[in-house]
Automatic annotation (TrEMBL):
Keyword Metal-binding: yes
Keywords: Hydrolase, Metal-binding, Pyridine nucleotide biosynthesis
GO molecular function: metal ion binding; nicotinamidase activity
Protein name: nicotinamidase
UniProt source species: Melanomma pulvis-pyrius CBS 109.77
Location of the Isochorismatase-like domain: 6-196
Organism lineage: Eukaryota, Fungi, Dikarya, Ascomycota, Pezizomycotina
Domain of life the protein comes from: Eukaryota
């Protein structure tokens, strides 16, 4: 059986980390040592993704009128720009990961020199895009990154996902990796959520999708002797 693993490190950017991030995830920066250990392993492809929004992005509460423009609290219905029949309910956020700002940078502690590709996502102001593969619309899909192409071109069999945030971009990236046909592993220890209370439900979704959550050491054991 062939085994050609890829590592996908999701959105380990200043805005998702304490102490200054506008959308800081609790302990977000604490996962970097585990990520660096993963980056030292012989994965066939190592990728870092970046949330990379224009200032007028639809997910920013600041781009909507009051009273339904409270970051974290307000929801908004996004209509597929290519199909008025398809809608998605989405959460509004503080401005974050704006192209060209410090908040959009990968954290400097991350060993980026070991990464083969940086994949940017979320550039289309009209749609939210948690997954590093594509936006959530299907009929039709609006925006795709180059991630699927890279993984398929390399003949990848297994995708290991880690990073931020466990309940948003990591989750949707892992679910899409599975949909793309890869065996998919989430390195739970090397993620942190926006809402810790949401994680039992996330784990149920993983179970349904046949995605395994593993420890960092388990990932090390699987990949180290390649
Ligand atoms: C993310 C909220 C908004 C993430 C991105 O990377 O998980 N969360 N944009
Ligand atoms: Zn975002």
């Amino acid at each position: 059986m062939t085994f050609k693993p890829a590592l996908v490190i999701v959105d380990v950017q200043e805005d998702f980390c304490p102490p200054h991030g506008s959308l800081a995830v609790q302990e977000g920066r604490d996962i970097v040592p585990a990520l660096n250990e993963l980056l030292s392993l012989p994965f066939a492809v190592k990728i870092a993704t970046k949330d990379f929004h224009p200032p007028d992005h639809i997910s920013f509460a600041s781009n909507h009128p009051p009273p339904d423009n409270k970051p974290f609290a307000s929801m908004y219905t996004i209509t597929n720009p290519l199909n008025p029949e398809e809608t998605q309910q989405t959460r509004l956020w503080p401005d974050h990961c704006v192209q060209g700002t410090k908040g959009a940078e990968l954290v400097p502690e991350l060993h980026v020199s070991k990464v083969h590709h940086i994949v940017e996502k979320g550039q289309d102001k009209r749609v939210e895009m948690y997954s590093a593969f594509a936006d959530p619309f299907t009929n039709p899909n609006v925006s795709r990154s180059k991630l699927a192409q890279i993984l398929h071109d390399e003949g990848i069999t297994d995708v290991y996902v880690a990073g931020l945030a466990a309940d948003y971009c990591v989750k949707f990236t892992a679910l899409d990796a599975r949909k793309e046909g890869f065996r998919t592993w989430v390195v739970g220890e090397a993620t942190r959520p926006v809402d810790p209370g949401s994680m039992p439900e996330v784990h149920q979704e993983y179970q349904k999708a046949k995605i395994s959550v593993i420890d960092k050491d388990e990932a090390v054991r699987m990949v180290k002797d390649l």
